[in-house]
Structure formats: C-alpha cells, structure tokens
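quick one before i forget lol
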Amino acid sequence: MAILLSSANSTVVTRWAGHLKEHFAIKKALSLAEVNKLCVTEQFETILLHRMLIDMPSFSGLLKSLPTARFFLLSDRPDEEEALLFLKLGIVGYGNTYISSLRLLEALRVITNGGVWLGQKVIQRLIMDTAGNSKVNEDRNAAESAMAKLTKAERQIAEFVARGESNLEIAADLYITERTVKAHLTSIYSKTKTGNRLNLALLINLGKSPQS
C-alpha cells in the first residue's frame, strides 16, 4: 500500500516525498477534500498530515470517515499539549514537519508495524499524567516486575527506547545492527507485554519513578 502525504504547502509535500519515494509508493493531497477523495478509492498504509492543514474538529471528522487509517501528524512547532490532544483523538504518530529523512523512515517503520511514534517530551508528559493515577504504586510494582525479566542487553535497549531513540540510533550507540535491535525489541515486547515503543517507554519510566 502507498503512503499519503497531505499538506496545503506543496514545498512540504515535496520534501516528504524526497525522503520517502525510494522506500514507499506515495500519493499526494493538497487539501482535506483531496484526502477524502483519494481514500474512497485507495487504502493507505499511513497518512502524513500537516498540522496546518487540519484542526481538531476536522481531524475528528476525518477519523470518523476513515476509522482504520493511521495518521502521523507533523507540526511546524511541535508541542506536547497538542500532541496529547491529538493522541487522545486517534493519531499514531507526532513529529516535526522538518523531521530528518532517517527519523521519518524509522517513524514510519514503527507506525506501519502497529506502534506509536512520539517525541521524548510527549512521552515524559504521559509519564507525568500516569504519576497522578491512584494506582501508581501498584503500576510501579508491575513495571519493576516486568523489567526484572529482561536481560542486561534488553534492559539497555529498553532504556534507549525510553529516551526516545530510534532503532538506527540505538544500533549506532551499541555498535550492533538494526536487525539485532529489532530482534531484541521483539523479545522485550513479549516479556513486558507492552507491544510497542510507547507502552515500553511508559513502563520503563514508570519503573524508574521514585516512590511517593
């Protein structure tokens, strides 16, 4: 399936296309009307949405008409409050409009594999929100128990994920291949029952939180 690039700014669409054209089939839309029209006749792996193209009500309407679509929202001025609001509505990724080629490709790999891609600041904000939960001590104990199942190498990789690093960055830091990182993550997700980067990051950070 193709990736749909949607922005009213043709320069932004061209930039994204330059990053992705050698890796994905791509289609372009310069308006929400075009997004809806294309989605009637074709399914897309992921839809990249420029924040300037959409507001919260229009995104809610778009998600309602395309309930199975995966939306990656990119903002010229990323903000964790905005990210959390759209995350609650249903996005599966949030980043900077001018994200680098490597990070965009890594984000799309995560998203197309069923994960969620968020910046470290957004993850930390989620941690703070979690800390206000009345079950926090119980959750911390569960997190510590889950982390105890990890090997030393797995724990190290999980820590990098919790800091928001991509697979490519982790591979470079540890002098291993990206394939090895992915293999470790498969094991980590299984042992911790997290399933994706976001849940793993929340688990790791919660386990490190000091007791109240």
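fyi The chain has eleven helices and five strands.
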